[in-house]
Amino acid sequence: xxxFKKALIVDDxxxxxxxxxxxxxxxxxxxxxxxSNGLEGIEQYQQVKPDFVLMDINMPGMDGLEALEKITDxxxxxxxxxxTSVATRQSVEQSAxxxxxxxxxxxxxxDEISLRIVETLEELDLx
Length: 127
What we know:
The chain is of the alpha/beta class. The chain contains 5 helices and 5 strands. A 5-stranded parallel β-sheet has the order 2-1-3-4-5, sandwiched between helices.
């Protein structure tokens, strides 16, 4: 069983990064890196080599879908969970096509976000 020690949060809103960081700490993630846009997210991914990524879709500059594609091109085994406040069928489908393992809405209750992250990692047989 693999334990997840490192995660990367990519979101342009500082308060949401803090919120997600608290959630990840609550499920036992020890080291959490942050990036405020897609380009920073790619750079952080390459430097930090996190066990998994929580990535926003709508960000200025490079959005999460483009960053997801570049991260999975760099590392086909990357575990990326996409998060958004505005879910559309197109963004869900594009996330899956670009290699996301899960798609979560930000307005989901905290306990459910925690549970879905853990369940997703368990389903991948990674925890």
